[in-house]
Automatic annotation (TrEMBL):
GO terms for cellular component: cytosol. Pfam families: FMN_red (PF03358). Residues 9-136 form the NADPH-dependent FMN reductase-like domain. InterPro entries: Flavoprotein-like_sf, FMN_Rdtase-like_dom, NAD(P)H-dep_reductase. It comes from the Bacteria. It comes from Candidatus Amunia macphersoniae. This is NAD(P)H-dependent oxidoreductase. GO terms for molecular function: FMN binding; oxidoreductase activity.
Length: 197
């Protein structure tokens, strides 16, 4: 769960179910990085989500869907890290995104890390941008980054220890948190201005 005393809560979501995934390692590393005022939580339930069917998006939701939406509602921002399969988003990850349509990520600040080597996964991340734009998120371009991660960079505990990579992940979290705080301050200022008028 998120720490109550921290002012920015970021939900971390890996788009891979594969054991040994560098994307999941990147997410775990993000959870281990300390950024002032930032609390992180990894969403672990992607594999339990049922296939999306609008007919099933009813009051009596599958528990895994309820869990996803509850964690999204508790977060101020979301950071994704996904691989590319056959030139597109992995099916299980797209299924997760489908379950967020209609409010799960609406107006929430989001960003992603592309952990693929070289110029890989560009099509998947272009697709991710399209989906996130269509669902009304606040894409924080300053927090979107290509941080190549090799399997050799991942320790036996599944976390990246390389200082340069950890530093870049810290920068991503910091930029995402900064956007959350900027938007929060703007809403407060707008509310004050409206009250004064």
């Amino acid at each position: 769960m998120f720490a109550e005393v921290l002012d920015c809560r970021i939900l971390l979501i890996s788009g891979s179910l594969r054991i040994g995934s560098t994307n999941s390692a990147t997410v775990r590393t993000a959870a281990s990085v300390i950024v002032a005022g930032v609390s992180t939580e990894i969403f672990e339930g992607m594999g339990e989500l049922p296939h999306f069917n609008p007919d099933d998006d009813i009051e009596a939701l599958h528990p895994a869907v309820t869990h996803l939406r509850t964690r999204l509602a508790a977060a101020d921002a979301v950071l994704f890290c996904t691989p590319e399969y056959a030139g597109a988003l992995p099916g299980s990850f797209k299924n997760l995104l489908d379950w967020t349509v209609g409010g799960g990520t609406y107006d929430k600040s989001v960003a992603w890390i592309n952990a693929s080597a070289g110029s890989g996964a560009v099509d998947a991340h272009a697709s991710l941008r399209t989906v996130l734009e269509r669902t009304g998120t606040d894409i924080v371009d300053a927090a979107c980054a290509h941080i190549p991660v090799t399997r050799q960079a991942v320790g036996t505990d599944g976390v990246i220890e390389e200082a340069v990579i950890r530093g870049r992940i810290e920068d991503v979290l910091g930029a995402l948190a900064e956007r959350v705080r900027e938007r929060r301050a703007a809403r407060v200022a707008q509310k004050v201005a409206t009250t004064v008028v």
